[in-house]
Design goal:
Layout (H helix, E strand, L loop, with lengths): L33 H13 L13 H13 L3 E5 L2 H11 L7 E5 L4 H9 L3 E5 L9 H7 L4 E7 L8 H11 L2 E5 L7 E2 L2 E2 L6 E5 L12 E5 L2 H11 L4 E2 L5 E2 L16 H32 L6 E2 L12 E5 L3 H13 L12 E2 L12 H4 L29 H9 E5 L6 H23 L8
Parallel strand pairs: 2-3, 2-4, 4-5, 5-8
Antiparallel strand pairs: 1-9, 6-7, 8-9, 10-11, 12-13, 13-15, 14-15
């Protein structure tokens, strides 16, 4: 019986699958075109860049919010200057402050922890599972008498176990804020992410599925919460239908943050939102073809999806049996040409994904203060709150971080790009499998 040997790896002197870098990620950017240019020029020519008044208001922000409500199925949408701003005003609307703990995921973006700390509350880490989002069982274990809410981040383009976590939050009397920054267009059983909890936030920074360079949005079905979020994002007060400030309701007398969306970015976002189904369609087509091939390859696992149809498909996560194998696979795949331009993220270990990894957030692990007095850690109401933040706090996440490669799936991959990714994984996994069968692990390089 003849055994077919795998092709010689490029890292061992073989011929690489490709020599040209893969396209940069930036899903929405690849679809930017003359439609966005025309939208910006329309606003510039109106000389009305502020959303509430001007020489010839175009009402771009108002229209974007209405269109985003229609897209997500939410009752209210409020556009803001960034995803970070969206987190701040949403948590402000939810009444977050000293004496409260908020459960956040081990796999996240630093802005989640920063928003909690900046409002004077204490973040509490919870582990993830093979969805790479919050593990509901571990969340429940972390709840204390001071816990007031949960932030569930739908990471790397795919929804987390939001129905179970929303049920847990309701049962325990906690708020649930969904961070959908990396998951615009994601769904669970046809229902948009961001609509399961009390509120959902989105980011439109350049890396996101749709973009205006910077920008964000909060959605909610709660009338009172919307009014409080609105007051927070503006001057600290509600506005009446004419746009004038209203100071009649004591519940809506807050301190404003000035996070309003401008008309230029809103105009771009309206065009990008109309293109979002096509952007998602391109990424889903590419990823599904790649995933179908990967499922036939030995030694590699894929993340678990709560709803594969609702995955926005902007990232591919591949999980290997141990850390050494993952390092070997990374180096071999990069040698085969599965890399992008230097400024992009392509084919790296998840543990090296910077401020997405809880133990890499130095300000968190060292409990850095926002002032010289140690706030919020030193606030009397926060005495004894919180827990550990160092590596080891979330062991499942730590294990997945060291065994998982992350590869963006740009919205402009050609059939050849897809072929090359598949071919490179095929060469590398075949070689890894051959060494595993010989009980001689391939040493990391």
């Amino acid at each position: 019986m003849t055994t077919t040997l795998p092709q010689k790896l490029a890292i061992d002197g073989g011929v690489p699958v490709r020599t040209e870098p893969l396209p940069l990620e930036f899903p929405g950017v690849h679809f930017l075109g003359e439609e966005e240019v025309a939208a910006v020029l329309r606003v510039l020519r109106s000389r009305s860049l502020f959303r509430y008044y001007g020489i010839d208001p175009q009402h771009e922000a108002d229209q974007f919010e209405s269109e985003f409500c229609a897209f997500t199925g939410a009752k209210h949408a409020l556009s803001v200057g960034s995803g970070t701003g969206a987190l701040h005003v949403a948590l402000t609307g939810l009444g977050l402050g000293p004496g409260q703990e908020v459960i956040i995921p081990a796999y996240l973006w630093v802005a989640i922890a920063a928003a909690v700390v900046n409002l004077g509350a204490i973040p509490v880490l919870a582990d993830i599972d093979d969805t790479f989002c919050l593990d509901a069982a571990d969340v429940e274990r972390r709840i204390t008498s001071h816990t007031t809410g949960i932030v569930l981040a739908h990471m790397s383009g795919a929804p987390g176990n939001v129905e179970e976590i929303a049920s847990l939050a309701r049962r325990r009397g906690l708020f649930l804020l969904e961070d959908c920054a990396q998951c615009a267009g994601g769904t669970v059983d046809g229902r948009s992410v961001g609509t399961f909890g009390d509120a959902g936030i989105f980011s439109f920074q350049m890396n996101k599925n749709m973009t205006s360079g910077e920008g964000g949005c909060v959605i909610t079905n709660d009338d009172r919460l919307y009014q409080r979020i609105f007051a927070s994002h503006d001057l600290g007060y509600a506005r009446d239908e004419s746009g004038r400030l209203s100071m009649d309701n004591p519940d809506l007398l807050l301190w404003g943050r000035g996070y309003r969306m401008d008309e230029l970015r809103a105009a771009v976002l309206r065009v990008q939102l109309a293109k979002l189904p096509a952007i998602l369609g391109a990424m889903r087509k590419s990823k599904r073809r790649i995933v179908a091939a990967l499922r036939e390859m030995p030694g590699v696992k894929l993340r678990r999806h709560i709803d594969a149809e609702g995955d926005t498909a902007c990232f591919l996560l591949t999980i290997f049996r141990d850390g050494d194998t993952a390092i070997t696979a990374r180096d071999a795949l990069r040698a085969e040409g599965i890399v992008t331009h230097e400024q992009g993220v392509a084919n790296i270990l998840l543990r090296d994904f910077g401020l997405h990894v809880y133990s890499s957030i130095a300000s968190l692990t060292s409990r850095c203060s926002v002032d010289a007095g140690g706030f919020p850690w030193s606030h009397p109401a926060n005495a004894g709150l919180g827990g550990a933040y160092d590596k080891g706090t979330c062991p499942v996440a730590d294990d997945l971080f060291r065994r998982t490669l992350i590869l963006p799936v740009p919205s402009c991959l050609s059939t050849k790009d897809e072929d090359d990714i598949i071919a490179a994984y095929g060469k590398v996994t075949a070689t890894l499998a051959q060494h595993a069968n010989r009980s001689a692990p391939l040493a990391p390089r």
